[in-house]
Amino acid sequence: MPILIRMSDVLLRLTGVSVRHEVYDESGAPSHGEPRPRDVSAELRAGEVVLLLGPSGCGKSTLTLTANGLIPQVIGARMDGTVTVGGRDTVTTPVPALARDVAMVFQDPDAQIVTASVLDEVCFGPENLLLPAAEVLDRAEEALRRVGLWERRDDDPDRLSGGGRQRLAIACALALRTSVLVLDEPTANLDPAGVEEVYRTLREIAAGRDRAVLLVEHNLDAAIDFVDRVIVLDAGGRVTLDGPARRILTDHVDELVELGVWLPVATLAALRLRAAGIRLDPLPLTPSELAAGLDTLPELPAPTVPTAVPIAVETSVRVRGMTVHRGRRAILHDITLSIGAGEFVAVAGANGAGKTTLAQAIAGVVGVPRGTVEVTGSSGFVFQNPEHQFLTNRVDDELAYGMKVLRRPQAEIDARVEDLLDRLGLRELRAVHPFLLSGGQKRRLSVGTALVTRPAVLVLDEPTFGQDRERATELLDLLDALHADGTTIVVVSHDMHLIAEYATRLLVLADGRVIADGTPADVYADAAVLAAAGLRPPPIARAARALTRHPGWRRLTRLADLPVLETAR
Amino acid sequence: MSDSIRSLRSYNPVVKTLAPVPAMIVVALSRDLWTPAVIGTIALLLLLIGGGLRGRTLLWVVAGPPLLVALLTVSFGIWTDPALVDETTALLTIGPFTLWSGALHTGLATGLRVAAVLLLGLIVGLTTDGPDLVRSMIAHLRVPYRIGYAGFAAMRFVPRFQRDLEIIRLAHRVRGVSGGRGPVTTLRRYGGYAVPLLAGAMRHGDRVSLAMEARGFGADRTRTERRQVPLRSRDAVLAALLIALCFVPHLPGALG
């Protein structure tokens, strides 16, 4: 059957697009780097939801910024090729004028808010386009109703949750009534409840089929069920695959793994099972598909029994009856717990539950009532934003700083610094200013600054926040190695999947109280606790729960529980 | 928002900002007690009648100026150079210290001047929303809207900076930056906060401006203003009244 494509259907057209960012050499002279993305051609049509995939650093976000002319008009980068939106060229049409055709939602909800009320915020875009006041209000009401924020129109945006603020950003984009909507990692800064909220909204919008949506997202588990088409860039920024989402993800799964593209957890599980000789066909993309696939098999081998966590002999952290106030409000109420040496403890809970305060109290960052916290040995704390901790002008000085404060002999300092440079993969960068490192390198360096004094307890606040999967996994592997060496690790995190894979114990906080404390598997089995804390079980646990056969598999929570062949890697 | 003619909130923000300025200048240049006392009292009455003040704000507006005047009177009385006032009456002598009536007079006048200027400033300060002032500046003073809205965005930066600074301070303390006192140590410590604070601020500012342009900011020479801040005859009356305060110094002469 011949397929008829009318030219007018193409809303966003990229032709041979390459972008070279400005880079600075050691003397500070600017030049243009390697093109990322490189020579991308693609067309987006009305009603399509297109997911852009690729290993980190391949230029996905950069490509989204070309869609409304921010590159090359506002951001100093060189662009070759052409981008047209609704027939208008993005190089010659000013960015604000393109707002009639393209709307953008960025990663950080806070950096998109201009005004002091939810309603004013949504009106801001249409007002810029000089629409009559009555139409501005009409559009604002429609957009706010679609994202479920109409009732909160008089509130200050700061009073919304992270998910609420990102839904507000989506409403602002909708109010522009554009034919193209571009979203760059819209959930990377959100807690699980926020991710859920945003995708519920996006799913409804996509169902309208009235616009083209271009999405960059590393959380494939949330996004995959409403994406129609996938464009995959390789590490060099070229388009290597472009086609229907399901077909690309299932037929080319090995290529995607090879490229380092993150896949839905259900798909990763199926790949792991395939290595163990259990074939699932078709390859599942969601937890429910994984469950359905497993249920078609008459028999499954027993899951890997998790290696028993060695019972800690010594107590590393002891908290007794600790209540912490900020101003008049109690942030933590009467917390009592002890953490054994060598545990890997995750602290989870909704925003404002007191997670960060508990972590800071354990590490001695904030003052607590005398005698309520005892730590055996020293402790180190890693803040959420690595830049906040940097003090010197070179990577190696940064690592040495903690030892210099303790006035240790120079030889010992040098030995530790050299060791860490290798361990963190920062040797080549030792003379670089910490602020000039990439996001992942900054994060590793900030962990290194805490490690140099060899603390017995390492506490980290949201170490994977705003990072892609690769960076997150890289960091967690580093922590896992420390844990294996006997360091006690305490991590505040929203990421249920990472917690399931790495932590030996999970503390759930709600309103300043510990409402659950146990192995991640036990906690994930308690639906009431998860609901109270605004958490969701990780994808594997959701799939396991949905099984109708194989009772032995229903308590699985992590990839590592899946059976592997002895010979498999 | 009340639209009653008795409420200062219903008056134009630009008028409330600019009309008190001549009176402020007159007060600041005055040397007598009468001028600041009368103008200050009128400003206070305006605030009490039309300000719709409540609770703690009301308490401060009523009690603050007398406290300020008393404080300045006493401290000037004690600290004024006796050489300047030793021709006036000596009210009190304790040991080597003499309290001169001239010193008290200077203190009282200064206190009244400061209080009066403050009260005139509060007319706009306590009865206006920042966004309305910006809207009115764009509509009535022809301030380019880009500048006005940059002001909006900047206002939202402030709490963010405070939060960031607090975290950076904790983060540096954790790294072992000494908490020493002395001015040099403190200065150096704050220098250390500046780099991460500015780096974060610049990045945030960049992102906000990208987001604003992506939403059509600057597409045209003007933009729709949903809320028209009115400029009415009542504003002319208020302006006339406030400007008329400039004649207060001449009143005693006129009255004989």
TrEMBL record, chain A:
Belongs to the ABC transporter superfamily. It comes from the Bacteria. Keywords: ATP-binding, Nucleotide-binding, Transport. SMART domains: AAA (SM00382). The lineage of its organism: Bacteria, Bacillati, Actinomycetota, Actinomycetes, Micromonosporales. This is Energy-coupling factor transport system ATP-binding protein. GO terms for molecular function: ATP binding; ATP hydrolysis activity; ATPase-coupled transmembrane transporter activity. The keyword Transit peptide does not apply. Residues 12-260, 317-536 form the ABC transporter domain. GO terms for cellular component: ATP-binding cassette (ABC) transporter complex.
Automatic annotation (TrEMBL), chain B:
It is a multi-pass membrane protein. One of its GO terms (cellular component) is plasma membrane. CDD domains: EcfT. Pfam families: CbiQ (PF02361). The chain crosses the membrane at residues 33-51, 58-79, 99-127, 236-255. The keyword Transmembrane applies. Keywords: Membrane, Transmembrane, Transmembrane helix. It is found in: Membrane. This is Energy-coupling factor transport system permease protein.
